[in-house]
Target: Nicotinate phosphoribosyltransferase
Amino acid sequence: MLSDLYELTMGNGYLQATPDLTGYFDVYFRKVPDDGGLVIFAGLQQVIDYVNDLHFDDEDLAYLKSLGIFKDEFLAYLKDFKFSCDIWSMPEGMPVYANEPLMTVRGPLIQAQLLETMILNTVNHQSLIATKARRITHAAGDKPVMEFGARRAQGPDAANYGARASVIGGAQSTSNVMAGQMFDIPVAGTMAHSWIETFPTEYDAFHTWAELYPHNCALLVDTYDVLHSGVPNAIEVFKELKGQGIEDHIGIRIDSGDITYLTKKARKMLDDAGFPNATITISNALDEWVIKTVLSDGAQVDAFGVGEKLITAKSDAVLSGVYKLVATEKDGQITPKIKISDSVAKTTVPGFKNVYRLYNDDGMAFADLLTLHDEKLPTEQPLHVMNANPEKTHRQATVDNYTAEDIRPQIFKNGKQVYHSPSVLEIQKFSKEQLARQWDEVKRVTNPDVYNVDWSPRLAEVSARLLAERSK
Ligand SMILES: Nc1ncnc2c1ncn2[C@@H]1O[C@H](COP(=O)(O)OP(=O)(O)OP(=O)(O)O)[C@@H](O)[C@H]1O
Ligand SMILES: O=P(O)(O)OC[C@H]1O[C@H](OP(=O)(O)OP(=O)(O)O)[C@H](O)[C@@H]1O
Ligand SMILES: O=C(O)c1cccnc1
Model:
């Protein structure tokens, strides 16, 4: 029932007007948030779960009937709903680019149309957060990032699925226990200022904590004064418990003030006191830009806690993925479809398509190639391609010495799941492996290079033909 009304009113109409027509829909986006170089695709698992459970119960049907706009025949169709679509999709964690089909849904129009709202809701949200997490973890380099955003997320679903997406995008853990339980991802955390304030002294608070949690002893040192109270008290507690096995699990967290200045001073104090292994975690409205700045200024940081700016993707909070009809099929005959717009960016790319990733001799990806579905995996050397960016279609290229990979496995075949779902941590690993095959120039946070998404000449021909026909 999480569906825009028009999916259902169209479904009601398709059943009467075009009952035997098959539709092909592509999911894609036109712009990477934050003017970034790539998006990390996420949310497929929740689409799979949704599709596997797609049904209308008596209460749903009674509600829809009460709206007074649906034919009984349509309500009967929903009652006996049996999903029979095919779905192809990028795997979760994949670096993906503008104007390429991330998913393609093929099936009875009435069914394929119905999936639009939920697919976009799920994929747009999780890909947005995974992409933000990728930017933040990229800025953090090899230092771990903990996701701390549940309290600032836009509601419970955003907290839970946002935590999942953050881990896909590279976060090492989440503070959100429900997300840990739901998705089997690591949970972690430190303590709040309330813990410190509860005790007569900061020292008492630290000491009690260290005895309680000798294996996870990160003390929050900024309640009163980081350098004159917090760090000295932490050191005193560490000294007292030295030799009791806590040395490798100790650290401090700084949650306010000038990160660069305070961490440099704190690092020196900890080192001078004989605790070079004590880690320094920082938090406080962090994002990729603050992290990059403080690290380049020499801040002494071992880990980051990142909340509101990650879980809300604050700097650019929408991924505008769309779901567009690209072809219909009747009696085995596929007819490409196009939507024309004054804005070239909003003109759709017609046809049932495949997506190939092209790699050079070193295994580095240099372009994605869209072809019509019946074109074979490209092997001819050299290969002629055309730029798919609607503003750059005049740019053509000839590529040589490449290998091509079909990067969209089939997920559903005739309504049955044919894809083995990886765990979230497996997805995170896959994402890192795929990112290692992307150029640094595309991955950087500021002014990245634009990755090539190309069309095969046949696909370009179909697009040009449909445009010309419709413009007559
Ligand atoms: N050395 C630094 N360089 C760049 N940005 C920093 C540095 N230190 C802190 N920041 C960032 O600047 C922003 C403001 O930090 P500041 O501690 O002044 O904030 P605040 O919210 O006023 O803190 P407080 O919790 O003390 O009220 C935060 O996003 C913080 O992460
Ligand atoms: O700043 P974020 O990236 O969202 O990270 C999470 C924040 O949540 C906690 O703050 P809390 O809710 O206790 O309030 P605070 O902002 O006053 O520290 C924590 O101390 C961080 O500051
Ligand atoms: O565990 C922490 O330190 C934590 C958790 C949520 C938000 N801020 C901090």
In short: The chain has a mean pLDDT of 96.
